[in-house]
């Protein structure tokens, strides 16, 4: 398989901030080592980025109550490590190109429920934005460092 010929998967990601400007992260069900990530996922056919973000957020966390603070203009990309190409996304993609949103969670923490129809996370927590690059899998670290700049612009 020639990896570079595979397309990038179109997706979205969402930075969820609580009232203390801490960021929501979840521990993935399929990677339960001590690695965390923010909610993200692919676009469904004919779906716009905003709709996809709200759907992914609901599917992964049950969160509905948000205020959109920023839609990041540029797209972020990451490539899968060679050993995961062919395993993740049934081998159709080499990585992901994502539109990210920064939102404020306006609900109560009792709204957060990971036991959804197709759960992706086994636990969740709030962390400071500066912790983000240290908790993510290595192949997404560069993207998270870039996202950190956007988060800091929003929270000041």
List key phrases describing it.
single chain; 156 residues; alpha+beta; Nucleoside Triphosphate Pyrophosphohydrolase; 3 helices
Instruction: Indicate the radius of gyration in whole angstroms.
Output: 15 Å
Biggest β-sheet strands, sense, barrel: 4 strands, mixed
Here the CATH topology equals Nucleoside Triphosphate Pyrophosphohydrolase
Question: How many domains, as an integer?
Answer: 1
- Average pLDDT for all residues: 93
What is the overall silhouette? globular
List low-pLDDT spans. none
- Which CATH architecture would you pick? Alpha-Beta Complex
CATH domain class: Alpha Beta
Helix content: 10-25%
Element-by-element helix/strand order: EEEEHEEEHH
**Looking across the biggest beta sheet, what order are the strands in?**
4-1-6-5
Q: Could you give me the name of the CATH homologous superfamily?
A: Nucleoside Triphosphate Pyrophosphohydrolase
Class of secondary structure makeup: alpha+beta
What is the β-strand count? 7
Report how far the terminal alpha carbons are from each other.
Answer: 45 Å
Indicate the multimeric state: single chain
Describe this structure in words.
- This protein is α+β, with helices and mostly antiparallel strands.
- The chain has a single domain (3-155), classed as Nucleoside Triphosphate Pyrophosphohydrolase (Alpha-Beta Complex).
- It is 21% helix and 34% strand.
- It has 3 helices and 7 strands, in the order E-E-E-E-H-E-E-E-H-H.
- It has helices at residues 49-61, 132-135, 141-155, and strands at 8-17, 23-28, 36-37, 40-42, 66-79, 95-105, 121-127.
- A 4-stranded mixed sheet has the order 4-1-6-5. Strands 3-2-7 form a 3-stranded antiparallel sheet, with no helix packed on it.
- A hairpin with a 7-residue loop joins strand 2 and strand 3 (36-37).
- The longest helix has 15 residues, at 141-155.
- The protein is globular and about 45 Å long.
- It starts with 7 loop residues before the first strand and ends with a helix.
- The relative contact order is 0.27.
- The model has no long low-confidence stretch (mean pLDDT 93).
């Amino acid at each position: 398989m020639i990896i570079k010929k595979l397309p990038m998967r179109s997706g979205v990601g969402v930075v969820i901030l609580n009232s203390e400007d801490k960021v929501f992260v979840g521990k993935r069900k399929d990677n339960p080592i001590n690695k965390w990530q923010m909610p993200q996922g692919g676009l469904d056919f004919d779906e716009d980025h905003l709709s996809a973000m709200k759907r992914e957020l609901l599917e992964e966390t049950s969160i509905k109550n948000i205020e959109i603070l920023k839609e990041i203009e540029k797209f972020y990309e990451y490539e899968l490590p060679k050993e995961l190409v062919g395993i993740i996304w049934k081998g159709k993609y080499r990585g992901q190109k994502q539109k990210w949103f920064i939102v404020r969670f306006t609900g109560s923490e009792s709204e957060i429920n990971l036991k959804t129809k197709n759960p992706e996370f086994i636990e969740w927590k709030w962390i400071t934005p500066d912790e983000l690059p240290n908790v993510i899998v290595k192949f997404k670290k560069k993207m998270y460092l870039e996202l950190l700049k956007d988060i800091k612009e929003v929270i000041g």
